[in-house]
Amino acid sequence: MAIKQDLVVKNNLLVTSNVTVPTSGNLVTTNEVRTIAKPTIDINFTKTNQLDSRILFTRSSAGTYVNSAGIIAYAGVNQPRFDYDPITGQSKGLLIEEQITNLFTYSTSIGSGSWNTRAGTTSVTPSGIAPDGSNNATLVTNTTGDGYVWQYLSVSPSTTYIVSVYATKVSGTPTLKFNAYTGAVGQAFQSGQNTLSSNNVRYSFSFSSTATTGPGDIGFYIQGGSAYVWGAQLETTTVNGNNTQPTSIIPTVASQVTRSVDIATFNPDPKVFNPYLNTFFIDFDANNTGYSFPLNSESFAEIATARGNTDVGTWNGFNAVDAINNSVNINNGVKYAIAYNQSQVQNVLSGGAITTSPYPPLYRPSGGYNFHLGGYSSNYRTIDGHIRRFTYWPQVLSGSQLQLLTRSN
């Protein structure tokens, strides 16, 4: 059935639309006014750098993020990170990441400590402006050698890793190529050539070790000119899923450093909830394309569960309710809404089709309410991405309203 709509939304309260609907077997156009009640909870993380007082946030280590000026900044223990796009300056929302260890040492002073350079490669540090605004970027110049810079270390067998580094052109036409050499991974892996520009760009490469590995070298080549490099990172992708991109920078010096998991727990007044009629909306992106929980409640259920790049659904402890839209990409961000009563669940992903299920309803056990944004109450099923918005209504919104909520702006 063809549908024509002209939508006007004002403060999430009133929606005016022209909708083509079936009447007695024929299609007719009606002028329809739909009222969406004001939600009892509505937190937009892209509009603030302050955490809502109802959210308990913990991370037992420091962490990094991109601030509104496009500079990598440092957050202390238990400080939330509101991340920004370094190119556009737009807010990405609240950054939630799993616990990850940077296996490289001296990651922000490349050329020092455990770093090695091939003969004919000159490294000078500090000498350039790094993405965090410091003067710790290392100049790598290929004179008569191949420009290889690496560390000698061991990795775990049968494990997938991501190696990454920031690099920017200084002179010539430099390229960057990653290398994971025989021994450390069981065989040699090399990325393609990345042509560097005058902008600071983070480059990355993923590789998998074999069942039996030993120590070897992992690093990168700078060829065809000179470049500044900074923020080298080697991390596993298999702690809680399957990351496709490196997580935020983890600075190291003489030893490896672990960034702890971000846990954001929302504990609202239980009086705002309806035990039997509920609608939830979550706007998020996820780097973890394995299995993660953008919105989880130990009192309700896994309200939003992401699996793979396009599969989002709900898990109530007994059955899965999926809203699949193959035209979306979770890495780029999606909007998901679910509404349910005592006998039926409806959900919509990114304005797509309405999925209706007669599965047993999500439940309200005793003990109150809590919600975990972007993961669980521990280092488990973390999205490694951003929560942009979380909204709740103590009533069941219609399927068409769920479609409206989840459409792209």
Provide key terms for this protein:
409 residues, mainly beta, Jelly Rolls, 1 helix, 31 strands, 2% helix, disordered N terminus
Short description:
The protein has 409 residues and is mainly beta. The protein contains one helix and 31 strands.
Please describe what this structure looks like.
By secondary structure, this protein is mainly β. The chain has three domains: 1-35, no CATH class; 39-99 and 260-409, Jelly Rolls (Sandwich), CATH 2.60.120.200; 101-258, Galactose-binding domain-like (Jelly Rolls). 2% of the residues lie in helices and 47% in strands. It is built from one helix and 31 strands. The strands form six sheets. Strands 11, 12, 13, 14, 15, 16, 17, 18 and 19 form a nine-stranded antiparallel sheet that branches. Strands 4, 8, 9, 22, 27, 28, 29 and 31 form an eight-stranded antiparallel sheet that branches. The longest helix has 8 residues, at 399-406. It is elongated and about 70 Å long.
Helix content: under 10%
Here the CATH topology of the largest domain equals Jelly Rolls
Strand content: over 45%
- Note the total helix count: 1
CATH class annotation of the largest domain:
Mainly Beta
Q: How many domains, as an integer?
A: 3
Spatial separation of the terminal alpha carbons: 23 Å
> What would you say the CATH architecture of the largest domain is?
Sandwich
Largest sheet report: 9 strands, antiparallel
How many beta-strand segments? 31
Uncertain ranges: 1-33
Our Rg estimate from Cα atoms comes to 24 Å
Category from helices, strands and their pairing: mainly beta
Mean pLDDT, to the nearest integer, reads: 83
Broad shape: elongated
